[in-house]
Amino acid sequence: MNQSAGHSGSAEAQSGIVVRGVHRSFGDFVALEDIDLEVKPGGLTALLGPSGGGKSTLLRIIAGLDYPDRGAVEIGGRDATFLPPQRRSVGFVFQHYAAFKHLTTARNVAFGLEIRKRPRAEVHDRVAELLELVHLEQFADRLPSQLSGGQRQRMALARALAVQPEVLLLDEPFGALDAKVRKELRDWLRRLHDEVHVTTLFVTHDQEEALEVADEIVVISQGRIEQVGSPAQLYDHPANEFVMSFLGPVTRLGGVLVRPHDIEVLTDERAGAVQVEVTKLLRVGYEVRAETRAQDGSTPWVQLTRAQVAELDLAEGATVWLRPLVATPFPAGSPRAPEPVPA
Ligand SMILES: Nc1ncnc2c1ncn2[C@@H]1O[C@H](COP(=O)(O)OP(=O)(O)OP(=O)(O)O)[C@@H](O)[C@H]1O
């Protein structure tokens, strides 16, 4: 791949984003509450959180499509808080990408360069490089209506990259696509980013997408940042019950939140183990979800493999004892824990 299609090695590749004390209200409603955030230069960072948490509002403020009531945004070390979008060197892609319907794929990608009056030969070469980068070389002459949804989003990314932005902002770029295409594009985005190290911030409400794709995840909820860290840090050391529940399945055992695969099933009583009755064994492929009921009425569930179930000779109605395999990483009763949702 010709690296000049992207930013590898260029000074701009090292532009990060700094958000300082950004606050945004809509009437009485506080959408962002004093957000401080540093997005690493050259990284692929996910802004992850539940619907309505403030992800898009923050992205729009970074893009220059909205402004904070107070606080500042820096891009590549320069104050960009009140700069218009076209002056902050950002490229963006949204869920429903508005392509020019009457222009071919190549002309759509060329658009930003043409309005900047770049020489014709340069535009031609750069569009060819970008189409290769997003694997759309054969589709250069097609109209957007002749592309699939996934191909259209790749075209959108090529168009955003064409003008060599310092940062790329993606708002649920694959949100409107079906699960299989989403998965393909996720892998593709990861590989693209490995080639073109442009600082990228992408919004998603899908924890699997964030865990699979991002170098760093920013968990945001109710206008506040809950935690920032690598996928492994967030998964293994969540700061609180909210982050733990949001990043994967959880269940409550003896009042403590645990991952259902981090529970030991014992066939006799042991210190620290909770006595339960197995109420249901649900097979999902190779995995078995064992639903149980404790004497206090709580209903912890355990994720097992078929082999484990066979080894334990587990059956519905059996009495067993459950014990967490790992200690909870945060103090019990940490703030704002939603009730675990059954998987
Ligand atoms: N222009 C606006 N006027 C009033 N309220 C708004 C406006 N824009 C956003 N909000 C509110 O701010 C909150 C945060 O919205 P935002 O779109 O940032 O959330 P989100 O995390 O991106 O959610 P989703 O994943 O559903 O897109 C929501 O409660 C939303 O209703």
Task: Tell me about this structure.
Residues 17-247 form the ABC transporter domain. Its EC number is 7.6.2.9. This is ABC-type quaternary amine transporter. One of its GO terms (cellular component) is ATP-binding cassette (ABC) transporter complex. GO terms for molecular function: ABC-type quaternary ammonium compound transporting activity; ABC-type sulfate transporter activity; ATP binding; ATP hydrolysis activity. With 343 residues, this protein is of the alpha+beta class. It folds into 2 domains: 3-241, P-loop containing nucleotide triphosphate hydrolases (Rossmann fold), CATH 3.40.50.300; 252-324, Beta Barrel (OB fold (Dihydrolipoamide Acetyltransferase, E2P)), CATH 2.40.50.140. Helices cover 27% and strands 30% of the residues. The chain contains 9 helices and 17 strands. Helix 2 packs parallel to helix 4 (149-162). It binds adenosine-5'-triphosphate.
Overview in brief:
The chain has 343 residues and is of the alpha+beta class. The protein folds into two domains: 3-241, Rossmann fold, CATH 3.40.50; 252-324, OB fold (Dihydrolipoamide Acetyltransferase, E2P) (Beta Barrel), CATH 2.40.50. The chain has helices spanning 55-63, 105-115, 120-133, 149-162, 179-195, 207-213, 231-236, 241-246, 306-312; strands at residues 17-26, 29-39, 44-48, 70-75, 78-79, 90-94, 167-171, 199-204, 216-221, 224-229, 251-253, 256-258, 263-266, 274-284, 287-294, 301-305, 319-324.
Labels describing this entry:
single chain; 343 residues; alpha+beta; Rossmann fold; 6-stranded mixed β-sheet; 5-stranded antiparallel β-sheet; 27% helix; elongated; disordered C terminus; ABC-type sulfate transporter activity
